[in-house]
Request: fold
Amino acid sequence: DLPLMEWLNNYIFPAESKTVSPEFVRAGTRLAALEMIESGTTTFADMYYFEEEIARETRRAGLRGVLGQTIIQFPVADAKTPADALARAEAYITEFRSDPLITPAVAPHALYTLDGPTLKAARELAKRLNVPTLIHLAESKDETKVAEERLASSPVAYLESLGFLGPGVLAAHGVWVNDADMQVLKMRGVGISHNPESNMKTASGVAPVPAYLRAGIAVGLGTDGAASNNDLDMFEAMRVAALLHKHETVDPTALSARTVVEMATIRGARALGMETRIGSLEPKKKADLITVSVSGA
Reply:
């Protein structure tokens, strides 16, 4: 029941500084894996601390993960400086880059928690090692306000000015974007992770998903994690996404059942740059399958 920035700065970041450890992360990942498997998830994207521990538990669970080591400006549990975090990220990527289930990534947290040089360094590391980049982008009105006041720019335009955007970038949220931003995201081949329940919980706004789809931008569906969602159930995420955009646009056809299923499967794979390997049932793709009971039992 708090705005995003207050929730992060006054509660989440202080709590993490006191509690996060390798064992904490391992336990959380095991619980998350159980919940995701029970609700049918086969592949997920994540950014956090001690990402090598998350990768090991993900592999043990048999899930597929695009897992990003977080880079952030202030001291955190696994790195005291951004330079430390970048070094950790490189070591982590080296360990897992050939793993059949784990796609390691670099995860600069957000433009409001990182300075320009660190954002550029994180992106350059990802490009040098040919791995994805995960970032929170244009999530809240406060983030947009910070970008306008400090950088005289929108969040998307600022990252574009740094040369940050391009194929391999997955941007979580993408709520506060204008038409020019959308054109940049399309031109650069950036994927979007739409997290409707999280955006509703923090009252961050409604992402322009129908406009993204019309523009041909790759949009997948996510939960944003249990802390900002309360669960990791993708069937619930599909249902909420469909209802939210019908309500927002006053159009019952705005986001159909078929479209939200695609956002949870092939469109999500496209946003991750993995559409040639997973996301649909086609010859030569990985057989990441679930079965769904319709008996109601």
Residues 22-38 form the longest helix (17 residues). Residues 266 and 279 are 4 Å apart (CA to CA). The longest strand covers residues 64-71.
